[in-house]
Amino acid sequence: MMSKLFFDESVIFLNLEGDTAEKVLRIMSANLVEKGLVKKSFIPAILKREREFATGLPTGSVPVAIPHTDVEHVKQKSISVAVLKNPVDFVVMGEESKTIAVRLVFMLAMDEAHSQLTFLQKLMQIFQEEEILKKIAEAKDKTFIRRLLEEKLNLVAFKGGDK
Amino acid sequence: MAKKIVLVACGAGIATSTVVNSAIEQLARDHNLDVDLIQIKIAEVGVYEDRADLLVTTAMTKKEYPFPVINARSFLTGVGVEETRQRILEELKK
């Protein structure tokens, strides 16, 4: 049975500080562990995965990263979003050592392989719209980001009203 | 023309290959090409090495394969996606 996708302000970070990709990933994944959305093993798994298969994406003026790892570490499907205080270098997906200064991190905790196509397509659609990425990168509050992404990712149906 | 076997791979086989897989499916449909798409983790490519005609991947590959390898990052970023589509089409039509 596919779980619902969890997404609210508690998995959104504004002005996240971290001088390395690893630090950023540690902070974000530890939060998911604390929230009970992923197993403890998610943290080392996502770090290892990023070292082996980097996820930095050159998406115009607002580069992003989409760290993710195998489904077995996930309890409930979710997406965690971080606006980085200062750009942090991530290795570019498909490259050996070329890096890109990432401003937004979308950490994916997926609980089933291959089954979240619509969700992922909508996410990639966002990556192709620089204006939306800019809005997120310049956002002043988490609720704005939540609402924007809920709309763009079509998550509203999963939620029970506003907070 | 024999049906082409196309491997679609990313590191974990969860996120990016799912999107790329669907993009190639669409591409093949638009051009009436019959392809067999196999979505895998990059670590599993070896299993299909004897059978595959093409590897489309978002992951880095240091290894040499007996078939062409096309980087599919553009399907995620939109940058250069038309060029990637053309390269894939060329291989599928061979």
From TrEMBL, chain B:
The biological process GO terms on file are: phosphoenolpyruvate-dependent sugar phosphotransferase system
Can you give the residue ranges of the PTS EIIB type-2 domain?
A: 4-94
**Stored SUPFAM superfamilies:** PTS system IIB component-like
Q: Name one GO molecular function term.
A: protein-N(PI)-phosphohistidine-sugar phosphotransferase activity
Q: Which UniProt keywords apply?
A: Sugar transport, Transferase, Transport
Record PROSITE patterns: PTS_EIIB_TYPE_2
InterPro entries, per the entry: PTS_EIIB-like_sf (IPR036095), PTS_EIIB_2 (IPR013011), PTS_EIIB_2/3 (IPR003501)
Q: What is this protein called?
A: PTS sugar transporter subunit IIB
Q: Which organism is it from?
A: Thermoactinomyces mirandus
